[in-house]
Amino acid sequence: MSLLTINNVKTFPKGGIHPADHKLSAGVPIKKLDPPAQVAIPLSQHIGAPATPVVEKREKVKVGQLIAKGNGFVSANIHATISGIVTKVDKVIDSTGYKRDAIIIKAGREGEEWADGIDLSDDLITEITLEREDIIKKIADAGIVGMGGATFPSHVKLSVPKGRTAEYLIINGVECEPYLTADHRLMLEKGAEIIVGARLLMRALGVEKAIIGIEKNKPDAIEKMAELTANEKGITVQPLKVQYPQGGEKQLIKAVLNREVPSGGLPIDVGVVVHNVGTAFAVYEAVQKNKPLVERVVTVTGKDVKNPSNFLVRIGTPVMQLIDAAGGIPEHTGKVVSGGPMMGKALNSLDVPVAKGTSGILLIPNEEAKRGEIKPCIRCTKCVQVCPMGLEPYLLMTLTQKEMYEEVEKEKTMDCIECGSCSFICPSDRPLLDYIRLGKRTVASLIRERNN
Questions:
Q1: Are residues 195 and 281 in contact, defined by beta-carbon separation less than 8 angstroms?
Q2: For residue 415, what are the domain limits?
Q3: CATH of the domain at 9
Q4: Which residues in 41-50 are b (16+ Cβ under 10 Å) and which e?
Q5: Tens digits of per-residue pLDDT, 52-81?
Q6: Domain count, the chain
Protein backbone atom coordinates (compact mmCIF):
# COMPACT_ATOMS: atom_id res chain seq x y z
CA MET A 1 0.00 0.00 0.00
CA SER A 2 1.30 3.47 -0.86
CA LEU A 3 2.04 5.63 2.12
CA LEU A 4 -0.13 8.28 0.48
CA THR A 5 -3.25 6.22 1.21
CA ILE A 6 -2.50 5.96 4.92
CA ASN A 7 -4.92 7.93 7.07
CA ASN A 8 -2.67 8.00 10.13
CA VAL A 9 -2.08 11.74 9.87
CA LYS A 10 -1.37 13.44 13.20
CA THR A 11 -1.20 17.00 14.49
CA PHE A 12 -0.97 19.02 17.70
CA PRO A 13 -4.29 19.69 19.47
CA LYS A 14 -3.95 23.30 20.62
CA GLY A 15 -4.28 26.36 18.39
CA GLY A 16 -2.59 26.76 15.03
CA ILE A 17 -3.55 28.30 11.70
CA HIS A 18 -3.43 27.37 8.03
CA PRO A 19 -1.91 30.16 5.91
CA ALA A 20 -1.73 29.61 2.15
CA ASP A 21 1.32 27.53 1.19
CA HIS A 22 2.73 29.26 -1.91
CA LYS A 23 5.38 26.54 -2.28
CA LEU A 24 6.42 28.01 -5.63
CA SER A 25 9.85 26.35 -5.72
CA ALA A 26 8.81 22.87 -4.55
CA GLY A 27 9.43 21.36 -7.98
CA VAL A 28 12.72 23.16 -8.60
CA PRO A 29 15.85 21.00 -8.04
CA ILE A 30 18.66 22.36 -5.90
CA LYS A 31 21.16 24.37 -7.94
CA LYS A 32 24.73 24.84 -6.76
CA LEU A 33 25.77 28.49 -6.96
CA ASP A 34 29.34 29.39 -7.84
CA PRO A 35 31.41 30.55 -4.86
CA PRO A 36 31.39 34.37 -4.55
CA ALA A 37 34.44 36.55 -5.06
CA GLN A 38 34.25 37.59 -1.42
CA VAL A 39 32.47 36.35 1.69
CA ALA A 40 31.70 37.94 5.06
CA ILE A 41 31.43 35.12 7.59
CA PRO A 42 29.76 36.24 10.85
CA LEU A 43 31.33 35.09 14.10
CA SER A 44 27.89 34.92 15.71
CA GLN A 45 25.57 32.79 13.58
CA HIS A 46 24.48 30.46 16.35
CA ILE A 47 22.84 30.63 19.78
CA GLY A 48 25.53 31.18 22.40
CA ALA A 49 28.85 33.00 22.57
CA PRO A 50 30.40 34.32 19.32
CA ALA A 51 33.33 32.30 17.97
CA THR A 52 36.87 33.64 18.46
CA PRO A 53 39.02 34.19 15.32
CA VAL A 54 42.07 31.92 14.93
CA VAL A 55 43.30 33.50 11.68
CA GLU A 56 44.92 36.86 11.01
CA LYS A 57 44.77 39.51 8.33
CA ARG A 58 46.55 38.52 5.08
CA GLU A 59 46.52 34.84 6.07
CA LYS A 60 45.81 32.39 3.26
CA VAL A 61 42.95 29.94 3.94
CA LYS A 62 41.37 26.92 2.28
CA VAL A 63 37.72 25.90 2.13
CA GLY A 64 36.81 24.00 5.29
CA GLN A 65 39.70 25.40 7.31
CA LEU A 66 38.89 26.46 10.88
CA ILE A 67 38.92 30.27 11.06
CA ALA A 68 37.11 30.86 14.36
CA LYS A 69 36.79 28.56 17.36
CA GLY A 70 33.65 28.16 19.45
CA ASN A 71 33.99 30.21 22.62
CA GLY A 72 32.77 27.81 25.30
CA PHE A 73 30.39 24.85 25.35
CA VAL A 74 27.38 26.74 23.93
CA SER A 75 29.07 28.10 20.83
CA ALA A 76 30.10 26.80 17.41
CA ASN A 77 33.20 26.62 15.23
CA ILE A 78 33.33 28.67 12.03
CA HIS A 79 35.13 27.57 8.85
CA ALA A 80 36.34 29.25 5.67
CA THR A 81 33.76 28.87 2.92
CA ILE A 82 35.98 29.97 0.03
CA SER A 83 39.73 29.74 -0.42
CA GLY A 84 41.70 32.94 -0.56
CA ILE A 85 43.08 35.68 1.69
CA VAL A 86 41.67 36.98 4.96
CA THR A 87 41.41 40.71 4.26
CA LYS A 88 40.11 41.82 7.67
CA VAL A 89 37.90 41.15 10.66
CA ASP A 90 35.25 43.84 10.50
CA LYS A 91 31.69 44.60 11.52
CA VAL A 92 29.01 43.83 8.94
CA ILE A 93 25.23 44.12 9.09
CA ASP A 94 23.67 40.68 9.59
CA SER A 95 20.06 39.53 9.31
CA THR A 96 19.20 41.09 12.70
CA GLY A 97 19.96 44.54 11.29
CA TYR A 98 22.84 45.07 13.70
CA LYS A 99 26.55 45.25 12.91
CA ARG A 100 28.45 42.23 14.16
CA ASP A 101 32.00 40.94 13.79
CA ALA A 102 32.74 38.90 10.68
CA ILE A 103 35.79 37.51 8.92
CA ILE A 104 36.14 38.84 5.38
CA ILE A 105 37.79 36.52 2.86
CA LYS A 106 38.64 37.47 -0.73
CA ALA A 107 38.88 34.59 -3.19
CA GLY A 108 42.32 33.72 -4.54
CA ARG A 109 43.19 33.75 -8.22
CA GLU A 110 44.66 30.25 -8.36
CA GLY A 111 41.36 28.38 -8.13
CA GLU A 112 39.58 26.80 -5.21
CA GLU A 113 41.49 24.76 -2.65
CA TRP A 114 39.87 22.59 0.01
CA ALA A 115 41.37 21.65 3.36
CA ASP A 116 42.98 18.22 3.54
CA GLY A 117 40.88 15.17 4.38
CA ILE A 118 37.51 16.37 3.10
CA ASP A 119 35.71 13.87 0.86
CA LEU A 120 34.00 15.79 -1.96
CA SER A 121 32.78 12.73 -3.86
CA ASP A 122 29.10 11.83 -4.25
CA ASP A 123 29.72 8.31 -2.93
CA LEU A 124 27.20 7.34 -0.23
CA ILE A 125 28.91 6.04 2.92
CA THR A 126 26.43 4.04 4.99
CA GLU A 127 28.74 2.17 7.37
CA ILE A 128 29.00 3.83 10.77
CA THR A 129 32.26 3.06 12.52
CA LEU A 130 32.52 5.73 15.21
CA GLU A 131 31.22 5.55 18.76
CA ARG A 132 29.03 8.11 20.51
CA GLU A 133 31.73 10.44 21.85
CA ASP A 134 33.62 10.52 18.55
CA ILE A 135 30.45 11.33 16.60
CA ILE A 136 29.60 14.22 18.92
CA LYS A 137 33.18 15.52 18.69
CA LYS A 138 33.09 15.47 14.89
CA ILE A 139 29.78 17.34 14.91
CA ALA A 140 31.22 19.96 17.27
CA ASP A 141 34.43 20.26 15.24
CA ALA A 142 32.38 20.80 12.07
CA GLY A 143 30.45 23.71 13.60
CA ILE A 144 27.01 22.20 13.02
CA VAL A 145 24.00 24.06 14.40
CA GLY A 146 20.24 23.69 14.03
CA MET A 147 19.57 24.27 10.34
CA GLY A 148 15.85 24.92 10.72
CA GLY A 149 16.59 28.46 11.85
CA ALA A 150 17.06 28.06 15.62
CA THR A 151 20.87 27.62 15.19
CA PHE A 152 21.37 25.90 18.55
CA PRO A 153 24.77 24.15 18.52
CA SER A 154 24.03 20.52 17.68
CA HIS A 155 26.71 18.98 19.91
CA VAL A 156 25.03 20.61 22.93
CA LYS A 157 21.68 18.99 22.08
CA LEU A 158 23.40 15.63 21.80
CA SER A 159 25.07 15.97 25.21
CA VAL A 160 22.19 14.72 27.34
CA PRO A 161 22.39 16.12 30.90
CA LYS A 162 22.87 13.81 33.84
CA GLY A 163 19.59 12.58 35.21
CA ARG A 164 17.88 12.77 31.80
CA THR A 165 17.45 10.00 29.26
CA ALA A 166 16.76 10.31 25.55
CA GLU A 167 14.23 7.78 24.24
CA TYR A 168 13.33 9.19 20.83
CA LEU A 169 14.97 11.17 18.06
CA ILE A 170 12.56 13.20 15.93
CA ILE A 171 13.78 14.40 12.53
CA ASN A 172 11.90 17.55 11.62
CA GLY A 173 10.96 17.56 7.94
CA VAL A 174 7.81 19.63 8.45
CA GLU A 175 8.90 22.95 6.89
CA CYS A 176 5.57 24.57 7.79
CA GLU A 177 6.59 28.13 6.85
CA PRO A 178 4.74 29.23 3.70
CA TYR A 179 6.95 29.58 0.60
CA LEU A 180 10.02 27.70 1.93
CA THR A 181 11.03 24.47 0.17
CA ALA A 182 14.72 23.94 1.02
CA ASP A 183 14.04 21.00 3.37
CA HIS A 184 11.51 19.52 0.94
CA ARG A 185 14.08 19.44 -1.88
CA LEU A 186 16.78 18.15 0.45
CA MET A 187 14.61 15.15 1.37
CA LEU A 188 13.93 14.41 -2.31
CA GLU A 189 17.53 14.78 -3.45
CA LYS A 190 19.58 13.78 -0.39
CA GLY A 191 17.20 11.43 1.40
CA ALA A 192 19.67 8.56 1.70
CA GLU A 193 22.26 10.85 3.28
CA ILE A 194 19.63 12.19 5.71
CA ILE A 195 18.83 8.63 6.80
CA VAL A 196 22.52 7.95 7.53
CA GLY A 197 22.63 11.26 9.39
CA ALA A 198 19.63 10.16 11.45
CA ARG A 199 21.37 6.89 12.31
CA LEU A 200 24.46 8.84 13.39
CA LEU A 201 22.30 11.04 15.63
CA MET A 202 20.61 7.93 17.06
CA ARG A 203 23.98 6.45 17.96
CA ALA A 204 25.15 9.74 19.46
CA LEU A 205 22.03 9.86 21.66
CA GLY A 206 21.95 6.14 22.42
CA VAL A 207 18.35 5.77 21.22
CA GLU A 208 16.79 2.99 19.16
CA LYS A 209 13.77 4.86 17.80
CA ALA A 210 13.61 7.75 15.35
CA ILE A 211 10.58 9.34 13.70
CA ILE A 212 10.69 11.57 10.63
CA GLY A 213 7.79 14.03 10.71
CA ILE A 214 6.64 15.46 7.35
CA GLU A 215 3.51 17.49 6.55
CA LYS A 216 1.20 15.84 4.05
CA ASN A 217 1.56 18.74 1.57
CA LYS A 218 4.85 17.03 0.63
CA PRO A 219 3.52 13.63 -0.54
CA ASP A 220 6.57 12.98 -2.72
CA ALA A 221 8.90 13.53 0.24
CA ILE A 222 6.77 11.29 2.48
CA GLU A 223 6.86 8.54 -0.12
CA LYS A 224 10.60 8.96 -0.77
CA MET A 225 11.54 8.84 2.92
CA ALA A 226 9.15 5.92 3.53
CA GLU A 227 10.87 3.93 0.78
CA LEU A 228 14.30 4.72 2.20
CA THR A 229 13.29 3.69 5.73
CA ALA A 230 11.35 0.55 4.76
CA ASN A 231 14.27 -1.65 5.86
CA GLU A 232 15.73 0.68 8.49
CA LYS A 233 15.33 -0.72 11.98
CA GLY A 234 13.82 1.78 14.37
CA ILE A 235 13.22 4.62 11.85
CA THR A 236 9.68 5.44 10.76
CA VAL A 237 7.97 8.24 8.82
CA GLN A 238 4.99 10.08 10.32
CA PRO A 239 2.70 12.06 7.98
CA LEU A 240 1.36 15.21 9.64
CA LYS A 241 -1.59 17.51 9.07
CA VAL A 242 -0.83 20.80 7.36
CA GLN A 243 -1.20 23.07 10.36
CA TYR A 244 1.14 25.92 11.25
CA PRO A 245 3.31 25.87 13.41
CA GLN A 246 3.56 22.10 13.06
CA GLY A 247 7.35 22.40 12.85
CA GLY A 248 7.72 23.91 16.32
CA GLU A 249 9.58 21.44 18.54
CA LYS A 250 6.90 21.31 21.21
CA GLN A 251 4.06 21.03 18.70
CA LEU A 252 5.90 18.31 16.76
CA ILE A 253 6.57 16.28 19.90
CA LYS A 254 2.92 16.55 20.94
CA ALA A 255 1.73 15.56 17.47
CA VAL A 256 4.05 12.60 17.02
CA LEU A 257 4.36 11.18 20.54
CA ASN A 258 1.55 12.87 22.49
CA ARG A 259 4.11 14.08 25.01
CA GLU A 260 3.86 17.63 26.33
CA VAL A 261 7.00 19.60 27.11
CA PRO A 262 6.35 21.38 30.42
CA SER A 263 6.31 25.17 30.72
CA GLY A 264 9.89 26.39 30.79
CA GLY A 265 11.10 22.90 29.90
CA LEU A 266 13.02 21.33 27.04
CA PRO A 267 12.27 18.35 24.77
CA ILE A 268 14.77 16.22 26.70
CA ASP A 269 12.50 16.63 29.76
CA VAL A 270 10.10 14.24 28.00
CA GLY A 271 12.82 12.00 26.58
CA VAL A 272 13.00 13.54 23.11
CA VAL A 273 15.62 15.30 20.98
CA VAL A 274 14.57 17.05 17.76
CA HIS A 275 16.86 17.77 14.80
CA ASN A 276 16.00 19.30 11.42
CA VAL A 277 16.49 17.29 8.19
CA GLY A 278 19.10 19.85 7.12
CA THR A 279 20.97 19.21 10.36
CA ALA A 280 20.84 15.45 9.74
CA PHE A 281 22.33 16.00 6.28
CA ALA A 282 25.07 18.24 7.71
CA VAL A 283 25.83 15.57 10.32
CA TYR A 284 26.21 12.98 7.56
CA GLU A 285 28.67 15.21 5.70
CA ALA A 286 30.63 16.03 8.87
CA VAL A 287 30.98 12.49 10.19
CA GLN A 288 31.11 10.42 7.01
CA LYS A 289 32.80 12.96 4.71
CA ASN A 290 34.82 15.04 7.19
CA LYS A 291 33.18 18.15 5.73
CA PRO A 292 32.50 21.15 7.99
CA LEU A 293 29.38 23.28 7.64
CA VAL A 294 30.41 25.66 4.86
CA GLU A 295 27.26 25.70 2.70
CA ARG A 296 23.52 25.19 2.94
CA VAL A 297 20.35 25.10 0.82
CA VAL A 298 18.43 28.38 0.69
CA THR A 299 15.05 28.99 -0.95
CA VAL A 300 14.73 32.28 -2.87
CA THR A 301 11.11 32.96 -3.69
CA GLY A 302 8.14 35.29 -3.86
CA LYS A 303 4.99 35.76 -5.94
CA ASP A 304 6.72 38.08 -8.42
CA VAL A 305 10.16 36.44 -8.41
CA LYS A 306 11.09 35.43 -11.96
CA ASN A 307 12.68 32.08 -11.08
CA PRO A 308 11.80 30.85 -7.56
CA SER A 309 14.72 28.56 -6.70
CA ASN A 310 16.53 26.41 -4.18
CA PHE A 311 20.24 27.17 -4.10
CA LEU A 312 23.17 25.38 -2.47
CA VAL A 313 25.18 28.39 -1.39
CA ARG A 314 28.32 29.10 0.62
CA ILE A 315 27.96 30.67 4.06
CA GLY A 316 28.92 34.35 3.83
CA THR A 317 27.55 34.91 0.32
CA PRO A 318 25.73 38.27 -0.01
CA VAL A 319 21.94 37.87 -0.21
CA MET A 320 21.88 40.04 -3.35
CA GLN A 321 23.84 37.36 -5.22
CA LEU A 322 21.09 34.82 -4.52
CA ILE A 323 18.39 37.25 -5.61
CA ASP A 324 20.26 37.95 -8.86
CA ALA A 325 20.49 34.21 -9.52
CA ALA A 326 16.70 33.95 -9.12
CA GLY A 327 16.08 36.68 -11.71
CA GLY A 328 16.66 39.87 -9.74
CA ILE A 329 14.41 42.08 -7.63
CA PRO A 330 10.87 42.46 -9.04
CA GLU A 331 9.85 46.05 -9.71
CA HIS A 332 7.18 46.32 -7.02
CA THR A 333 9.05 44.60 -4.17
CA GLY A 334 8.19 46.19 -0.84
CA LYS A 335 10.15 44.01 1.55
CA VAL A 336 12.88 41.36 1.53
CA VAL A 337 12.63 38.86 4.38
CA SER A 338 15.20 36.42 5.71
CA GLY A 339 13.22 33.25 6.43
CA GLY A 340 9.51 32.76 5.87
CA PRO A 341 6.64 35.24 6.12
CA MET A 342 5.56 34.06 9.58
CA MET A 343 8.79 34.04 11.59
CA GLY A 344 11.27 35.69 9.23
CA LYS A 345 12.73 39.16 9.69
CA ALA A 346 12.84 41.95 7.13
CA LEU A 347 16.33 42.85 5.90
CA ASN A 348 17.54 46.44 5.83
CA SER A 349 20.42 45.61 3.51
CA LEU A 350 20.90 43.15 0.66
CA ASP A 351 24.61 42.93 1.47
CA VAL A 352 23.66 40.79 4.49
CA PRO A 353 25.57 37.49 4.30
CA VAL A 354 23.94 34.06 4.22
CA ALA A 355 24.43 32.41 7.61
CA LYS A 356 24.03 28.87 8.91
CA GLY A 357 20.41 29.59 9.86
CA THR A 358 19.37 31.22 6.58
CA SER A 359 16.62 28.95 5.28
CA GLY A 360 15.07 31.31 2.76
CA ILE A 361 14.94 34.75 1.18
CA LEU A 362 11.39 35.95 0.50
CA LEU A 363 10.59 38.95 -1.68
CA ILE A 364 7.20 40.41 -0.77
CA PRO A 365 5.30 42.75 -3.14
CA ASN A 366 4.38 46.27 -2.02
CA GLU A 367 0.70 45.62 -1.46
CA GLU A 368 1.44 42.73 0.92
CA ALA A 369 4.40 44.37 2.67
CA LYS A 370 2.37 47.21 4.16
CA ARG A 371 0.92 46.78 7.61
CA GLY A 372 -2.72 47.58 8.16
CA GLU A 373 -3.74 50.49 10.36
CA ILE A 374 -3.68 49.42 14.03
CA LYS A 375 -7.21 49.39 15.41
CA PRO A 376 -8.52 48.86 18.94
CA CYS A 377 -8.81 45.29 20.25
CA ILE A 378 -12.39 44.06 19.80
CA ARG A 379 -12.04 41.26 22.38
CA CYS A 380 -12.73 38.58 19.77
CA THR A 381 -10.22 36.16 21.43
CA LYS A 382 -9.04 34.87 18.05
CA CYS A 383 -5.41 35.33 19.13
CA VAL A 384 -6.09 33.13 22.17
CA GLN A 385 -7.77 30.46 20.07
CA VAL A 386 -4.84 30.11 17.65
CA CYS A 387 -1.97 30.32 20.15
CA PRO A 388 -0.31 26.87 20.11
CA MET A 389 1.15 27.50 23.57
CA GLY A 390 -2.17 28.37 25.22
CA LEU A 391 -1.17 31.97 25.97
CA GLU A 392 -3.22 35.17 25.85
CA PRO A 393 -1.43 37.34 23.29
CA TYR A 394 -3.76 40.35 23.65
CA LEU A 395 -2.99 40.44 27.39
CA LEU A 396 0.77 40.06 26.90
CA MET A 397 0.73 43.00 24.47
CA THR A 398 -1.26 45.19 26.89
CA LEU A 399 0.95 44.34 29.87
CA THR A 400 4.09 45.06 27.83
CA GLN A 401 2.68 48.40 26.67
CA LYS A 402 2.09 49.30 30.32
CA GLU A 403 5.61 48.03 31.23
CA MET A 404 4.14 45.64 33.81
CA TYR A 405 6.94 43.14 33.31
CA GLU A 406 6.40 41.13 36.51
CA GLU A 407 2.89 40.37 35.27
CA VAL A 408 4.26 39.66 31.78
CA GLU A 409 6.53 37.00 33.30
CA LYS A 410 3.68 35.52 35.36
CA GLU A 411 1.64 35.15 32.18
CA LYS A 412 4.40 32.85 30.84
CA THR A 413 5.61 35.06 28.01
CA MET A 414 8.84 33.04 27.88
CA ASP A 415 6.79 30.08 26.62
CA CYS A 416 5.95 32.01 23.42
CA ILE A 417 7.58 30.39 20.38
CA GLU A 418 7.14 33.59 18.31
CA CYS A 419 5.23 31.78 15.56
CA GLY A 420 3.21 34.88 14.66
CA SER A 421 -0.15 33.09 14.55
CA CYS A 422 -1.69 35.77 16.79
CA SER A 423 -0.66 38.68 14.56
CA PHE A 424 -1.74 36.75 11.46
CA ILE A 425 -5.28 36.17 12.73
CA CYS A 426 -5.92 39.55 14.42
CA PRO A 427 -8.77 41.42 12.64
CA SER A 428 -7.56 44.70 14.15
CA ASP A 429 -4.03 44.41 12.71
CA ARG A 430 -2.49 44.76 16.15
CA PRO A 431 1.28 44.12 16.33
CA LEU A 432 0.89 41.42 18.97
CA LEU A 433 4.09 39.54 18.23
CA ASP A 434 6.18 42.73 18.14
CA TYR A 435 5.14 43.59 21.69
CA ILE A 436 5.47 40.00 22.89
CA ARG A 437 9.04 39.90 21.59
CA LEU A 438 9.77 43.15 23.42
CA GLY A 439 8.27 41.73 26.58
CA LYS A 440 10.26 38.51 26.24
CA ARG A 441 13.54 40.37 25.83
CA THR A 442 12.85 42.50 28.89
CA VAL A 443 11.75 39.55 31.03
CA ALA A 444 14.80 37.53 29.93
CA SER A 445 17.03 40.40 31.03
CA LEU A 446 15.28 40.59 34.40
CA ILE A 447 15.67 36.82 34.89
CA ARG A 448 19.41 37.06 34.14
CA GLU A 449 19.83 39.91 36.64
CA ARG A 450 17.93 37.91 39.27
CA ASN A 451 20.11 34.85 38.78
CA ASN A 452 23.45 36.68 38.87
A1: no
A2: 382-451
A3: 3.40.50.11540
A4: bbbbbbbbeb
A5: 999 999 999 999 999 999 998 899 999 999
A6: 2
